[in-house]
Write a structure and sequence with these properties.
single chain; 126 residues; alpha+beta; 6 strands; globular
Length: 126
């Protein structure tokens, strides 16, 4: 399957026995089921092993908004994290897979004071 943002093939990544997702070899975006993101959020140091792309690369690809789910071939919905509104993601309405640009999972896992400022500066997604 190809990356919905930049087209190279996604590679399957695992962490332990129960975390499995797909990561782009070029933009380092992550594609995972919604429940998998929740598991990743509770796993110690998951971001270190899975979200290896720099936030600057992720920011570049964050501007690519109209993407299709690589599994279902339907347009993904644009969503924001309700707690950190500066994190913009795409979610498949059919299979519940979520695409995070490089650096977004690490940011999502740890909310800081600067995240609150970023949310004010970046604004809401339309």
């Amino acid at each position: 399957m190809d990356c919905p943002k930049c087209a190279p093939e996604l590679e399957t990544k695992t962490l332990g026995d129960d975390i499995k997702l797909e990561r782009c070899r070029t933009c380092f975006g992550l594609l995972a089921k919604g429940f998998m993101l929740e598991k990743m959020g509770t796993e110690f140091m998951a971001e270190t092993f899975l979200d290896i792309g720099s936030a600057s690369i992720g920011k570049k690809f964050d501007k690519v908004e109209d993407i299709q789910c690589t599994h279902c071939k339907v347009d993904m919905d644009k969503i924001v994290d309700p707690h950190q509104t500066h994190i913009w993601m795409e979610c498949c309405p059919s299979c519940d897979r979520i695409f995070l640009d490089a650096g977004e999972f690490s940011d999502l896992k740890y909310e800081t004071f600067s995240d609150k400022i970023k949310g004010l500066l970046k604004g809401r997604r339309h």
